[in-house]
Amino acid sequence: MSAAQRSAALRAHRGPVLLALPTIVFLLVLFAIPVARLMLLSVETGTLEPYEKALTDPLYLKVLLDTGKIALIVTVLCFMLGYPVAYFLTVAPRAWQVVGLFCLLMPFWTSILVRTYAWMVLLGRRGVVSETLLSLGIIDAPMTFLHSLPAVLVGMVHVLLPYLVFPVYAVMQRIDPNLMQAAHGLGAPGWRAFWRVYFPLTMPGVLSGASLVFILSMGFFITPVLLGGGRVMMIAVLIEQQVREFLNWEFAGALSATLLVFTLCVYAAFRRLMGADRQLV
Amino acid sequence: MSDDEGLVLTGASKHFGKVVALDRVDLAVRSGELLTILGPSGSGKTTLLRVVAGFERPDGGTVMLRGEDITWLAPAKRDIGMVFQNYALFPHMTVHGNVAFPLEMRRMKRAEILERVKWALNVVELDDYGERYPRQLSGGQQQRVALARAIVFNPRMLLLDEPFGALDRKLREQLQLEVKRLQRRLGLTALFVTHDQEEALVLSDRIAVMSAGRIAQLGEPQEIYARPASRFVADFIGESNLFEGEVCEAGGSFSVRCSATMTVHIGDVGAHPGERVSVLVRPERVKPLNGESDGARVAATAPPANTFAGTVSEVVYLGESEKLRITLEDGAEMLVRWHPEGRQRGARAGDALRVAFDAQDVHVIRGAA
Q1: DSSP H or E stretch at residue B213
Q2: Residues B220 and B246 reside in one and the same domain
Q3: Cβ of A182 and B88 within 8 Å?
Q4: Which of B206, B167, B215 is nearest to B39 (CA)?
Q5: Would B356 be classed as within a structural domain?
Q6: One domain for residues B218 and B259
Q7: Which of B369, B49, B19, B4 is nearest to B208 (CA)?
Q8: DSSP character for B210?
Q9: CATH code at A104?
Q10: Which residues of B touch A188 (CB under 8 A)?
Q11: Which domain holds residue B180?
Q12: Which of B193, B208, B231 is the last residue of a domain?
């Protein structure tokens, strides 16, 4: 490249780089560096002992696996509830679309802490659920639904649902309506047309949303703490415990690093799955 | 050939709120025939097609196919092949997958499916394209795949909804002929919808011209072109010179008085003196007169020919012909289409020109528009 070409190339990149600079600096200073420091703490002692503990101690392995399991269940639940919602938003008449989007977005814009507390009120001993069941005669004494896995699942699904609905909705919007008609005309009755044509075409959206929900679930903290009451141990809860109660920064760092690696692996797996589908459209 | 073999629509009606899309339409498509529904946007042609396909339920009337009442039958059960304007190929399946789809829906055995797909791809001349994806194909190729998919399961009839609208002219003409040949070869009953009147003339065994939910005229292309039944049809098909006037009779020969300075001589078509009619003469039937020899020749023909003097206001060069817009004495306009021969000088704007056409070339449209 001649000098003129080189300077032209630099000039072309200058704009985008300058625009990205504030964000890069922000993320670097307030995120990347602290996280790196945390990771470094885990090897400060000079040995890999915290990592050994994190990866081989059955107690902590169980926490990691449980976190994965919970994330998986939440993802599946979000899919089962969210897919029909996304479809409804796509085909509903305008007025219902607005209502639907509102119902989805309002909670989305409400603080997660506020929402989790709201669930505590609803599921508590004197909450709505308990009172309703009592009045229906299904139970004969007020009971609490908190401090259990189902409560945590409810809270998490409630928060993470929009993350699945929106990518799926976006993909559904772009599906050519003629395709389903063509499928019907060619002899495919309702269900078969859906399964063979519509569903495969929404796959990119589903994978996108599912990966988002799964990865976010892995790192959930507030909801398992408040709604799980110590009975639901997810890895983020454990990490916080190590820092706050035991001041064991090294171990916390090791656990964090483990979580990060695991998340990156999951992300890579999803990318591969989506890569195969990305050629559609 | 009994009507039981084809498509029969009786009194088909459909409205969307206050809009009447179909107004008691009767239509019979004969078995093995390619009938084109021709009309402008909003004429109801697409609604008609959708009613036949089953995507719309008519508010009244019946649809019979091969003697069976399919008015309320689900689209999936009608066994009708459809080709859409935007192809509607399944993007996540290969060409083979797309063409095999209707056969899989009919639960055919794998071996048979393979054979039929091979046959269909061969008919549309895309034998080696089985493993490609729709996005890797050109528009024309995609439409051929759509065709293959529509015929592979031996449909009872074929529906084509403006299938070539998205293609360029040369490709369109090529595919038009391919579809016609295919339809003839397979003996398929076909219903073709378009707003392109040239396409209709090329392809059809018969044309049904639609306007405002009704069929304005049904007939063979020659019939529709040469003898349109109304001003609307005359205007819609081909180019036309249309004039209105009153019928006059003098000594056995008829004419139509269109204005103070314009009278058109017509043949004996059974019109009554005093009747208001429209007269149509196609631009290619109007001949420019060059010099005295032409004038003498024209005067010698009987019944009396129509001669008019005017000025050329516009010349459109079309390669194989020239289209002239002439302004006549009383301000009326006439379109003339002619072929300048050899190195004969074409007309130029501003030229004074006399034109003539035979009374036999005038088509009289009686009754209301």
Answers
A1: none
A2: no
A3: yes
A4: B215
A5: yes
A6: no
A7: B49
A8: E
A9: 1.10.3720.10
A10: 76, 101, 105
A11: 3-231
A12: B231
> What is the tens place of the pLDDT at every residue in A70-103?
999 999 999 999 999 999 999 999 999 999 999 8
pLDDT in tens, B176-217: 999 999 999 999 999 999 999 899 999 999 999 999 999 999
Q: What is the mean pLDDT of residues B17-44?
A: 91
Nearest to B207, CA basis, from B244, B186, B238: B238
Same-domain check for residues B154 and B7: yes
Q: Which two tokens stand for residue A185?
A: 């005309």
* Number of domains, chain B: 2
> Are A213 and A267 in a shared domain?
yes
Print the SS3 string covering B7-54.
EEEEEEEEEECCEEEEEEEEEEECCCCEEEEECCCCCCHHHHHHHHHC
pLDDT at B292: 45
CATH number of the domain bearing residue B265? 2.40.50.100
User: Rounded to whole angstroms, how far apart are CA atoms B212 and B15?
Assistant: 12
Number of CB atoms found within 10 A of residue A266's CB: 16
Residues of B in Cβ contact (< 8 Å) with A281? 91
Q: CB-based burial of residue B192 (10 Å sphere; 0-12 exposed, 13-18 middle, 19+ buried)?
A: buried
Is residue B8 domain-shared with residue B54, that is, in the same domain? Answer: yes
Please, where are the H alpha helices in chain B? 45-53, 95-105, 110-123, 139-151, 169-186, 197-203, 221-226, 231-236, 291-300
In a domain, B291, yes or no: yes
Q: How far apart are CA A273 and CA A206, in angstroms?
A: 11
- Give A204's contacts in chain B (Cβ within 8 Å): none
* 8 A C-beta contact, residue B307 and residue B361: no
CATH of the domain at B160: 3.40.50.300
Q: ipTM of the assembly?
A: 0.80
B105–A187 C-beta distance less than 8 A: yes
Average pLDDT of chain A to the nearest whole number = 87
Q: Which DSSP string corresponds to B267-281?
A: ---SPPTT-EEEEEE
Amino acid letter, B199: E
Whether residues B117 and B223 fall in one domain:
yes
Mean pLDDT in residue range B64-89: 92
Nearest CA in chain B to A203: B92
Averaged pLDDT, B245-272: 79
Query: Least CA distance to B88: which residue of chain A?
Result: A179
For residue B202, the tally of other CB atoms under 10 A from its CB is 15
B348 found inside a domain? yes
The DSSP H or E segment spanning B208 is strand B206-211
Domain that holds residue A33: 1-42
Residues B157 and B122 in one domain: yes
In a domain, B236, yes or no: no
User: For residue B254, what are the β-bridge partners?
Assistant: B249, B266
Q: Which residues share a beta bridge with B37?
A: B193, B208
Whether residues A178 and B88 touch (CB distance < 8 A) is answered with yes
Q: Report how many domains make up chain A.
A: 2
The pLDDT value given to residue B190: 95
CB B311 within 8 A of CB B330: no
